Protein backbone atom coordinates (compact mmCIF):
# COMPACT_ATOMS: atom_id res chain seq x y z
CA UNK A 1 0.00 0.00 0.00
CA UNK A 2 1.21 3.51 -0.81
CA UNK A 3 1.67 6.10 1.92
CA UNK A 4 -1.13 8.62 2.50
CA UNK A 5 -2.08 11.41 4.88
CA UNK A 6 -4.62 10.30 7.54
CA UNK A 7 -7.03 12.65 9.31
CA UNK A 8 -9.70 11.84 11.86
CA UNK A 9 -12.56 14.34 11.37
CA UNK A 10 -13.82 16.09 14.50
CA UNK A 11 -17.00 17.46 12.90
CA UNK A 12 -18.75 17.54 9.54
CA UNK A 13 -17.34 20.95 8.51
CA UNK A 14 -13.77 19.81 9.17
CA UNK A 15 -14.43 16.58 7.27
CA UNK A 16 -15.68 18.24 4.08
CA UNK A 17 -12.88 20.81 4.11
CA UNK A 18 -10.23 18.10 4.54
CA UNK A 19 -11.71 16.02 1.72
CA UNK A 20 -12.30 18.89 -0.74
CA UNK A 21 -9.16 17.87 -2.65
CA UNK A 22 -10.15 15.65 -5.61
CA UNK A 23 -7.62 13.01 -4.51
CA UNK A 24 -9.02 12.59 -0.99
CA UNK A 25 -11.24 9.74 0.18
CA UNK A 26 -13.56 9.30 3.12
CA UNK A 27 -13.08 6.27 5.36
CA UNK A 28 -16.13 4.85 7.17
CA UNK A 29 -16.38 1.06 7.51
CA UNK A 30 -13.40 0.67 5.17
CA UNK A 31 -14.68 -2.53 3.59
CA UNK A 32 -14.27 -1.22 0.03
CA UNK A 33 -11.64 1.49 0.35
CA UNK A 34 -8.99 -0.52 2.17
CA UNK A 35 -9.31 -3.49 -0.21
CA UNK A 36 -8.83 -1.27 -3.24
CA UNK A 37 -5.93 0.63 -1.66
CA UNK A 38 -4.15 -2.66 -0.93
CA UNK A 39 -4.69 -3.70 -4.56
CA UNK A 40 -3.23 -0.32 -5.64
CA UNK A 41 -6.44 0.44 -7.55
CA UNK A 42 -7.26 3.48 -5.39
CA UNK A 43 -4.42 5.81 -4.43
CA UNK A 44 -5.84 8.64 -2.29
CA UNK A 45 -3.32 11.17 -1.04
CA UNK A 46 -5.55 11.93 1.99
CA UNK A 47 -7.90 9.62 3.88
CA UNK A 48 -10.46 11.38 6.09
CA UNK A 49 -11.81 9.06 8.77
CA UNK A 50 -15.45 9.94 9.53
CA UNK A 51 -16.03 7.19 12.10
CA UNK A 52 -16.08 9.85 14.83
CA UNK A 53 -19.26 11.37 13.29
CA UNK A 54 -21.36 8.31 14.14
CA UNK A 55 -23.23 10.22 16.87
CA UNK A 56 -24.56 12.60 14.19
CA UNK A 57 -25.11 10.27 11.25
CA UNK A 58 -25.47 6.84 12.82
CA UNK A 59 -29.13 6.69 13.82
CA UNK A 60 -32.30 5.07 12.49
CA UNK A 61 -35.62 6.93 12.73
CA UNK A 62 -38.91 5.25 11.83
CA UNK A 63 -42.19 7.10 12.29
CA UNK A 64 -45.53 7.66 10.56
CA UNK A 65 -44.00 9.91 7.93
CA UNK A 66 -41.30 7.46 6.87
CA UNK A 67 -37.81 6.11 7.45
CA UNK A 68 -34.57 8.02 7.89
CA UNK A 69 -31.26 6.13 7.88
CA UNK A 70 -28.00 7.81 8.87
CA UNK A 71 -25.18 7.15 6.43
CA UNK A 72 -23.00 5.75 9.23
CA UNK A 73 -25.58 3.16 10.33
CA UNK A 74 -24.01 -0.30 10.09
CA UNK A 75 -25.68 -2.61 7.58
CA UNK A 76 -26.39 -5.19 10.28
CA UNK A 77 -28.18 -2.67 12.51
CA UNK A 78 -30.58 -1.66 9.74
CA UNK A 79 -31.12 -5.26 8.60
CA UNK A 80 -32.03 -6.37 12.14
CA UNK A 81 -34.20 -3.37 13.04
CA UNK A 82 -37.70 -4.78 13.86
CA UNK A 83 -39.69 -1.90 12.36
CA UNK A 84 -37.66 -1.93 9.17
CA UNK A 85 -38.22 -5.69 8.89
CA UNK A 86 -41.98 -5.18 9.33
CA UNK A 87 -42.62 -1.98 7.37
CA UNK A 88 -39.79 -1.99 4.80
CA UNK A 89 -38.91 -5.70 4.38
CA UNK A 90 -37.17 -5.06 1.06
CA UNK A 91 -34.62 -2.85 2.85
CA UNK A 92 -33.81 -5.50 5.47
CA UNK A 93 -33.61 -8.31 2.89
CA UNK A 94 -31.33 -6.36 0.54
CA UNK A 95 -28.92 -5.67 3.40
CA UNK A 96 -28.99 -9.23 4.73
CA UNK A 97 -28.12 -10.62 1.33
CA UNK A 98 -25.52 -7.99 0.50
CA UNK A 99 -22.61 -9.23 2.58
CA UNK A 100 -21.33 -11.76 5.09
CA UNK A 101 -22.15 -11.29 8.77
CA UNK A 102 -18.72 -9.86 9.56
CA UNK A 103 -18.93 -7.33 6.75
CA UNK A 104 -22.48 -6.30 7.68
CA UNK A 105 -21.30 -5.40 11.18
CA UNK A 106 -18.48 -3.26 9.80
CA UNK A 107 -19.79 -1.67 6.59
CA UNK A 108 -21.92 1.48 6.64
CA UNK A 109 -24.97 2.32 4.53
CA UNK A 110 -23.32 5.36 2.94
CA UNK A 111 -20.26 3.39 1.93
CA UNK A 112 -22.37 0.51 0.68
CA UNK A 113 -24.15 2.51 -2.00
CA UNK A 114 -20.81 3.89 -3.23
CA UNK A 115 -19.01 0.54 -3.50
CA UNK A 116 -17.01 -0.01 -6.68
CA UNK A 117 -17.53 -2.60 -9.37
CA UNK A 118 -16.26 -6.17 -9.06
CA UNK A 119 -15.01 -6.19 -12.69
CA UNK A 120 -11.78 -8.21 -12.47
CA UNK A 121 -10.04 -5.90 -14.94
CA UNK A 122 -10.81 -2.86 -12.80
CA UNK A 123 -9.20 -4.60 -9.84
CA UNK A 124 -6.06 -5.59 -11.76
CA UNK A 125 -3.98 -2.41 -12.13
CA UNK A 126 -0.81 -4.13 -13.39
CA UNK A 127 -2.01 -5.68 -16.64
CA UNK A 128 -5.53 -4.65 -17.64
CA UNK A 129 -6.94 -1.88 -19.83
CA UNK A 130 -9.77 -0.22 -17.92
CA UNK A 131 -11.42 3.10 -18.74
CA UNK A 132 -12.94 3.28 -15.28
CA UNK A 133 -9.54 3.04 -13.57
CA UNK A 134 -7.45 4.86 -16.19
CA UNK A 135 -9.61 6.99 -18.54
CA UNK A 136 -8.78 6.36 -22.19
CA UNK A 137 -6.95 3.07 -21.60
CA UNK A 138 -9.67 0.87 -23.13
CA UNK A 139 -11.99 -1.80 -21.79
CA UNK A 140 -10.59 -5.31 -21.50
CA UNK A 141 -14.03 -6.72 -20.62
CA UNK A 142 -15.64 -5.92 -23.99
CA UNK A 143 -13.81 -8.80 -25.68
CA UNK A 144 -12.61 -10.54 -22.53
CA UNK A 145 -14.30 -12.30 -19.62
CA UNK A 146 -17.72 -10.70 -19.29
CA UNK A 147 -19.94 -13.37 -17.72
CA UNK A 148 -20.77 -11.17 -14.72
CA UNK A 149 -21.04 -7.90 -16.61
CA UNK A 150 -24.04 -5.70 -17.32
CA UNK A 151 -26.61 -5.93 -20.12
CA UNK A 152 -28.48 -2.70 -19.29
CA UNK A 153 -27.09 0.83 -19.30
CA UNK A 154 -23.82 -0.17 -20.94
CA UNK A 155 -21.64 1.92 -23.26
CA UNK A 156 -18.81 1.29 -25.70
CA UNK A 157 -16.44 2.43 -22.92
CA UNK A 158 -17.60 0.25 -20.00
CA UNK A 159 -19.97 -2.63 -19.24
CA UNK A 160 -19.18 -3.04 -15.55
CA UNK A 161 -22.03 -4.13 -13.30
CA UNK A 162 -23.03 -2.01 -10.33
CA UNK A 163 -22.41 -4.49 -7.50
CA UNK A 164 -24.66 -3.37 -4.62
CA UNK A 165 -28.04 -4.66 -3.38
CA UNK A 166 -29.21 -1.99 -0.91
CA UNK A 167 -29.19 0.63 -3.69
CA UNK A 168 -31.86 -1.31 -5.57
CA UNK A 169 -34.16 -1.05 -2.55
CA UNK A 170 -33.50 2.68 -2.24
CA UNK A 171 -34.17 3.42 -5.89
CA UNK A 172 -37.34 1.31 -5.85
CA UNK A 173 -38.72 3.12 -2.81
CA UNK A 174 -38.09 6.62 -4.23
CA UNK A 175 -35.47 7.40 -1.57
CA UNK A 176 -33.82 10.79 -1.19
CA UNK A 177 -30.15 11.30 -0.30
CA UNK A 178 -28.89 14.08 1.97
CA UNK A 179 -25.39 15.28 1.19
CA UNK A 180 -22.96 17.61 2.99
CA UNK A 181 -20.18 19.38 1.12
CA UNK A 182 -17.95 22.44 0.80
CA UNK A 183 -20.90 24.39 -0.69
CA UNK A 184 -23.27 23.34 2.11
CA UNK A 185 -25.92 20.62 2.42
CA UNK A 186 -28.17 19.51 -0.42
CA UNK A 187 -30.70 16.79 -1.11
CA UNK A 188 -31.28 14.77 -4.26
CA UNK A 189 -33.32 11.84 -5.45
CA UNK A 190 -31.44 8.56 -5.07
CA UNK A 191 -32.33 7.85 -8.70
CA UNK A 192 -30.13 10.83 -9.67
CA UNK A 193 -27.10 9.83 -7.56
CA UNK A 194 -25.47 7.31 -9.91
CA UNK A 195 -24.76 8.08 -13.56
CA UNK A 196 -24.41 5.66 -16.49
CA UNK A 197 -20.87 5.09 -17.82
CA UNK A 198 -21.32 6.79 -21.20
CA UNK A 199 -18.01 8.22 -22.37
CA UNK A 200 -16.76 8.80 -18.80
CA UNK A 201 -17.02 5.54 -16.83
CA UNK A 202 -14.59 6.83 -14.20
CA UNK A 203 -17.38 9.21 -13.06
CA UNK A 204 -19.93 7.07 -11.20
CA UNK A 205 -22.01 9.59 -9.23
CA UNK A 206 -22.94 13.27 -9.22
CA UNK A 207 -21.09 13.81 -5.92
CA UNK A 208 -18.51 16.60 -6.12
CA UNK A 209 -15.06 16.54 -4.40
CA UNK A 210 -15.57 16.77 -0.66
CA UNK A 211 -19.26 15.85 -0.76
CA UNK A 212 -20.38 13.23 1.73
CA UNK A 213 -23.66 11.31 2.02
CA UNK A 214 -25.13 11.97 5.47
CA UNK A 215 -28.49 10.15 5.34
CA UNK A 216 -31.22 8.50 3.27
CA UNK A 217 -34.95 9.19 3.58
CA UNK A 218 -37.93 7.17 2.40
CA UNK A 219 -41.44 8.55 2.69
CA UNK A 220 -44.12 6.26 4.10
CA UNK A 221 -46.23 4.84 1.25
CA UNK A 222 -48.88 2.13 0.80
CA UNK A 223 -46.43 -0.16 -1.03
CA UNK A 224 -43.51 -0.37 1.43
CA UNK A 225 -44.91 -3.32 3.44
CA UNK A 226 -45.63 -5.43 0.37
CA UNK A 227 -42.01 -5.33 -0.74
CA UNK A 228 -39.33 -7.95 -1.31
CA UNK A 229 -35.77 -8.30 -2.56
CA UNK A 230 -34.90 -11.44 -4.54
CA UNK A 231 -31.27 -12.18 -5.41
CA UNK A 232 -29.84 -14.88 -7.69
CA UNK A 233 -26.12 -15.64 -7.30
CA UNK A 234 -23.56 -18.35 -7.89
CA UNK A 235 -23.36 -19.26 -4.18
CA UNK A 236 -26.31 -18.81 -1.85
CA UNK A 237 -23.98 -18.38 1.15
CA UNK A 238 -22.46 -15.17 -0.16
CA UNK A 239 -21.81 -13.75 -3.61
CA UNK A 240 -22.62 -10.71 -5.71
CA UNK A 241 -25.86 -10.77 -7.68
CA UNK A 242 -26.07 -12.24 -11.16
CA UNK A 243 -29.60 -10.87 -11.17
CA UNK A 244 -31.80 -9.34 -8.50
CA UNK A 245 -35.18 -7.66 -8.26
CA UNK A 246 -36.50 -5.21 -5.67
CA UNK A 247 -40.29 -5.06 -5.83
CA UNK A 248 -42.94 -3.07 -3.98
CA UNK A 249 -46.63 -3.32 -4.80
CA UNK A 250 -49.78 -1.61 -3.62
CA UNK A 251 -52.71 -3.89 -4.38
CA UNK A 252 -56.43 -3.41 -4.15
CA UNK A 253 -57.43 -5.92 -1.46
CA UNK A 254 -60.80 -6.69 -3.08
CA UNK A 255 -59.91 -7.41 -6.69
CA UNK A 256 -56.16 -7.92 -6.66
CA UNK A 257 -55.64 -4.96 -8.94
CA UNK A 258 -52.18 -3.35 -8.86
CA UNK A 259 -52.58 0.26 -7.76
CA UNK A 260 -48.88 1.12 -7.68
CA UNK A 261 -45.68 -0.76 -8.54
CA UNK A 262 -42.03 -0.03 -7.82
CA UNK A 263 -39.46 -2.18 -9.66
CA UNK A 264 -35.65 -2.08 -9.53
CA UNK A 265 -33.11 -4.51 -10.97
CA UNK A 266 -29.62 -5.42 -9.80
CA UNK A 267 -26.73 -7.54 -11.08
CA UNK A 268 -27.66 -6.74 -14.68
CA UNK A 269 -27.03 -3.00 -15.06
CA UNK A 270 -24.21 -0.48 -14.82
CA UNK A 271 -26.00 1.51 -12.12
CA UNK A 272 -28.93 0.94 -9.74
CA UNK A 273 -31.71 0.34 -12.27
CA UNK A 274 -35.35 1.39 -11.98
CA UNK A 275 -37.69 -0.09 -14.58
CA UNK A 276 -40.52 2.38 -15.11
CA UNK A 277 -41.50 0.46 -18.29
CA UNK A 278 -42.21 -2.69 -16.28
CA UNK A 279 -44.13 -0.73 -13.65
CA UNK A 280 -46.39 0.86 -16.27
CA UNK A 281 -47.43 -2.57 -17.56
CA UNK A 282 -48.71 -3.64 -14.14
CA UNK A 283 -50.48 -0.57 -12.79
CA UNK A 284 -54.26 -0.50 -13.09
CA UNK A 285 -54.60 -4.19 -14.00
CA UNK A 286 -55.39 -7.31 -11.98
CA UNK A 287 -52.14 -9.08 -11.07
CA UNK A 288 -51.36 -12.33 -12.90
CA UNK A 289 -48.26 -14.32 -13.75
CA UNK A 290 -48.80 -13.52 -17.43
CA UNK A 291 -48.85 -9.79 -16.64
CA UNK A 292 -45.66 -10.21 -14.59
CA UNK A 293 -43.96 -11.98 -17.51
CA UNK A 294 -44.92 -9.14 -19.84
CA UNK A 295 -43.46 -6.64 -17.38
CA UNK A 296 -40.23 -8.67 -17.20
CA UNK A 297 -40.05 -8.74 -21.00
CA UNK A 298 -40.37 -4.96 -21.08
CA UNK A 299 -37.73 -4.50 -18.38
CA UNK A 300 -35.10 -6.16 -20.58
CA UNK A 301 -36.24 -4.86 -23.97
CA UNK A 302 -33.22 -2.54 -24.16
CA UNK A 303 -30.63 -5.14 -23.12
CA UNK A 304 -27.31 -5.21 -24.99
CA UNK A 305 -25.50 -8.47 -24.11
CA UNK A 306 -21.93 -9.65 -24.77
CA UNK A 307 -21.15 -13.30 -25.66
CA UNK A 308 -20.66 -14.51 -22.08
CA UNK A 309 -23.48 -12.64 -20.35
CA UNK A 310 -26.47 -13.07 -22.68
CA UNK A 311 -27.89 -15.58 -20.16
CA UNK A 312 -28.56 -12.65 -17.83
CA UNK A 313 -31.50 -11.52 -19.92
CA UNK A 314 -33.49 -14.71 -19.34
CA UNK A 315 -32.21 -15.02 -15.76
CA UNK A 316 -33.17 -11.43 -15.04
CA UNK A 317 -36.64 -11.90 -16.54
CA UNK A 318 -37.27 -15.02 -14.46
CA UNK A 319 -35.94 -13.35 -11.31
CA UNK A 320 -38.23 -10.36 -11.83
CA UNK A 321 -41.27 -12.53 -12.62
CA UNK A 322 -40.70 -14.66 -9.51
CA UNK A 323 -40.21 -11.60 -7.32
CA UNK A 324 -43.42 -10.01 -8.61
CA UNK A 325 -45.40 -13.20 -7.95
CA UNK A 326 -43.97 -13.50 -4.43
CA UNK A 327 -44.74 -9.85 -3.65
CA UNK A 328 -48.30 -10.18 -4.95
CA UNK A 329 -48.85 -13.29 -2.81
CA UNK A 330 -47.58 -11.75 0.45
CA UNK A 331 -50.10 -11.89 3.28
CA UNK A 332 -49.97 -8.69 5.25
CA UNK A 333 -51.11 -8.50 8.86
FE1 LIG B 1 -12.93 -1.24 -16.76
FE2 LIG B 1 -15.56 -1.02 -17.08
FE3 LIG B 1 -14.18 -2.27 -18.90
FE4 LIG B 1 -14.42 -3.38 -16.49
S1 LIG B 1 -16.04 -3.04 -17.93
S2 LIG B 1 -12.55 -3.22 -17.73
S3 LIG B 1 -14.51 -1.53 -15.19
S4 LIG B 1 -13.97 -0.11 -18.35
How would you describe this protein?
With 333 residues, the protein is of the alpha+beta class. 27% of the residues lie in helices and 19% in strands. It has 12 helices and 12 strands. It has helices at 12-18, 33-38, 54-57, 75-79, 82-87, 89-96, 101-106, 109-113, 166-172, 276-282, 289-299, 311-329, and strands at 5-8, 24-27, 46-49, 60-63, 66-70, 176-180, 186-189, 212-219, 227-232, 243-251, 258-266, 273-274. Strands 4-5-8-6-7 form a 5-stranded antiparallel β-sheet. Helix 6 (89-96) runs antiparallel to helix 9, helix 10 (276-282) packs antiparallel against helix 11 and helix 11 (289-299) packs antiparallel against helix 12. The protein starts with a strand and ends with a helix. The mean pLDDT is 96. Bound molecules: iron/sulfur cluster. Iron/sulfur cluster binds at residues 117, 119, 121-122, 130-132, 139-141, 158-160, 201.
Shape: globular
Order of helices and strands: EHEHEHEEHHHHHHEEEEEEEHHH
Given helix and strand content, the structural type is alpha+beta
Number of strands: 12
The helicity comes to: 25-40%
Q: What is the terminal-to-terminal distance?
A: 53 Å
What is the C-alpha radius of gyration, as a whole number of Å?
20 Å
Calculate the mean pLDDT score and round it.
96
**β-strand amount:** 15-25%
Number of helices: 12
Q: Segments where pLDDT lies below 50 for 5+ residues? A: none
- Name the bound molecules: iron/sulfur cluster
Main β-sheet description: 5 strands, antiparallel
Amino acid sequence: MRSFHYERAQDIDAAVQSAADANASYLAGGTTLLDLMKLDVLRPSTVVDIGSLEDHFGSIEVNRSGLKLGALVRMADAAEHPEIRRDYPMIAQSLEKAASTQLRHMATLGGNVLQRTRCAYFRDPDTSACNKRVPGSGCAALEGLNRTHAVLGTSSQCIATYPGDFAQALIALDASVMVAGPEGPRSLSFEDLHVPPGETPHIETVLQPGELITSFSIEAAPWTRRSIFLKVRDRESFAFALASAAIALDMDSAGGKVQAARIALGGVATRPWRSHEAEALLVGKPFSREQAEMAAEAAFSGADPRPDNAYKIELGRRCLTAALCRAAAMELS
